[in-house]
Specification:
Number of helices: 10
Radius of gyration: 20 Å
Largest sheet: 5 strands, antiparallel
Number of strands: 13
Strand order of the largest sheet: 11-10-9-12-13
Bound molecules: adenosine monophosphate
Structural class: alpha+beta
Length: 335
Amino acid sequence: MSEIKTIVTIASHSALQIMKGAKQEGFRTALICLENRINVYTRFKHLIDNIIIIKEYSDIIRNETQKILLDLDAIIIPHGSFVEYIGIENLYKIESPIFGNRKLMEWEYDQWKKYELLKSAGISVPQVYNKLNDIDRLVIVKLPGAKGGRGYFLAMSKDELIMKAEKLNIDLSQAFIQEYIIGTPMYFHYFYSPIYDRLELLGSDIRYESDVDGLRRIPYNIVEPTFTVVGNIPVVLRESLLTQVFDYGEKFVKITKTKVPPGVIGPFCLEAVCRNDLKIVVFEFSGRIVAGTNLYIQGSPYSWLYFDEPMSMGRRIAREIKLAIENDALDKIIS
Ligand code: AMP
């Protein structure tokens, strides 16, 4: 294993947080950046030692880019835009080490596999409908490749679902139809440290989604809700919810170790709704850093319980890499 000197990510999503965290832990940093985004990222030059400019995301797997990354002794940090931009088919073409488990990123890409993983972990999940005739309650319809909630719609019955799908020109054979859980959507930011063999809860947030979260501003029933994420709001959980939150996190770590060895590495998020009976139902997971962690660049009320210093998720990743280097255990955190 070559040395690791530079923490690298793609200029998007949580890149600034990752760069800042890497600097705090003493690493060199590099950003892979599209030409049209340079204007934002050069404003933070003090955090970024190298900017690798690309014309399109597929340039990441070109030999020239890969050589630059290898020369930098890079470790790549995947985030929410990573697989979406480089394409799942290119995941294994990246020669530099990636922080985390590439296999889990593959699972994350497939709605069905994702759902099965959560379910077999013993985590409460919404009902999923394979047959339209079985629909007996409010459902949310998700299409493959729909990102950040864009393009989702709701239906109360089979007939309504078909009618809306026709109107939107949607091929229903590709749709993932899930029971719509009513309650408060909440996102739990975990970090699993293979070095400490410890699950940490580093934060939680609520996403603000357009238009569903703005509907209270207009008379009821005029607008069909949509779920496009536009931002994140901090939330601190009622403390008694932590029992379920840690239980689900532990279950997730355990199932990924069994089904997607070596299991989850570093940041992950369970995306859930807390119902009014205080039961948490998980409808999604992300096996990498989520954008809601950008709220806590100075640390969160939870990270402060583990560390007596501001610890963002970006910094926690860099800390884990540093610990792995010091303990000669890099193989535990990369793939
Ligand atoms: P996702 O792309 O799966 O993270 O979902 C985007 C948004 O759709 C979420 O943040 C929720 O507001 C909403 N959503 C997705 N699935 C469900 C569900 N099963 N029940 C309630 N809301 C959901």
